[in-house]
Design goal:
- The strands form two sheets. A six-stranded antiparallel β-sheet has the order 2-1-3-4-7-8, covered by helices on one side.
- It has helices at about 40-55, 125-140, 140-160; strands at about 1-10, 15-20, 80-85, 90-95, 100, 110, 115-120, 120-125.
- The chain is globular and about 50 Å long.
- The protein is of the alpha+beta class and about 160 residues long.
- It has one domain (about 1-160): 3-Layer(aba) Sandwich (Rossmann fold), CATH 3.40.50.300.
- The protein contains three helices and eight strands; from the N terminus they run E-E-H-E-E-E-E-E-E-H-H.
């Protein structure tokens, strides 16, 4: 699985949409995400993991905490990930469940979690269907993804620091 583009909106520390074009990195097959503490590295990993599996990359954060505390009430929270796998391009969009103030009047509006994946001329929606399709496409589940992709990044990062 090769990430191509990532868009995060009102996600983690980002109050507006932030776009990352991984294609600009090149085609070497491996890259390192580095930065100072608090720069947003983990948020990028959380967004990729959340887009694919509906889970964050680590165990110390909850999906219920993904909406940015800095986002305006009229800004939707979502993650879009475009990735390539076995020569095919997929686009997946997920929105977490969250609460925000109503646009008019008093009270709270609840946004429900949702997901869809688009590839070829196919659109699959509903979280359960998307989860099943992602596991079918990648051949791994969220736990395996974290062991393969996320831990490998941490080991690489550690080796670069030493």
């Amino acid at each position: 699985m090769k990430p191509l583009k990532l868009a995060m909106c009102a996600f983690g520390p980002y109050k507006d949409e932030v776009n990352i074009d991984f294609e600009k990195i090149g085609n070497n097959g491996i890259f390192l995400i580095t930065g100072d503490t608090g720069a947003g590295k983990t948020t990028i990993f959380d967004a990729i993991s959340y887009a694919l599996f509906g889970e964050v990359s680590g165990s110390n954060r909850l999906v219920s905490s993904l909406r940015s505390n800095f986002a305006d009430d009229n800004v939707d929270t979502y993650v879009n990930l475009e990735f390539e796998h076995k020569g095919k391009v997929y686009t997946i969009k997920r929105t977490p469940a969250y609460e925000r103030h109503k646009n008019r009047g008093d009270g709270i509006t609840k946004n429900v979690a949702d997901a869809c994946i688009i590839y070829d001329d196919t659109v699959i929606s509903k979280i359960k269907n998307v989860d099943e399709k992602i596991e079918e496409i990648l051949g791994i589940n969220a736990k395996q993804f974290k062991q393969i992709a996320m831990l490998a990044q941490r080991r690489i990062l550690k080796n670069f620091i030493c």
